[in-house]
Design a protein that fits this description.
The protein is built from 2 helices and 4 strands; from the N terminus they run ααββββ. It is α+β, with helices and mostly antiparallel strands. A two-stranded antiparallel sheet has the order 1-2. It has a two-stranded antiparallel sheet with strand order 3-4. It is rod-shaped.
């Protein structure tokens, strides 16, 4: 370090400051600390908002998709996880239960024509329970 630079720093540190400049320095330091804390808090809040927006709500699997339990299907629309009337013995899919839409393509469905589950039949595009034979 050059001698003149070192001497300048040493002089500025050794000189006494006035009360006014000391109070000004304390006030500036406190203001900077508060502003920095507010910025950090704002960043945390913004990050939490971003996380909430990224959560996706699942509406259940579409009719005809494979499933393991009824909770995976669109139960609010009447679909259950069972073997459909057109499927093999162990192919469980989200198929129509009581009151579910079935049959030809409708406005409510994308491109599938769902089948009713075994034990239900499609009557007027609505799955209805098949009465048991005596």
């Amino acid at each position: 370090m050059e001698t003149t630079t070192f001497d300048g720093i040493a002089k500025s540190l050794s000189t006494t400051s006035t009360r006014r400049s000391a109070v000004r320095g304390i006030f500036a330091g406190a203001l900077a600390a508060v502003a920095g804390g507010a910025l950090l808090h704002a960043d945390d809040a913004a990050a939490k908002r971003r996380r909430r927006k990224s959560k996706k709500t699942t509406q259940g699997r579409k009719p005809g998709e494979f499933c393991d339990s009824t909770s995976q299907c669109q139960t609010s629309k009447g679909y259950i996880c069972e073997v459909a009337v057109n499927a093999g013995n162990s192919d469980k899919t989200c198929s129509g239960g009581q009151g579910a839409v079935c049959g030809p393509k409708t406005e409510d469905l994308d491109d599938t024509a769902p089948f009713c589950a075994v034990g239900f039949s499609c009557v007027n595009q609505i799955c209805q329970a098949v009465p048991e034979e005596i």
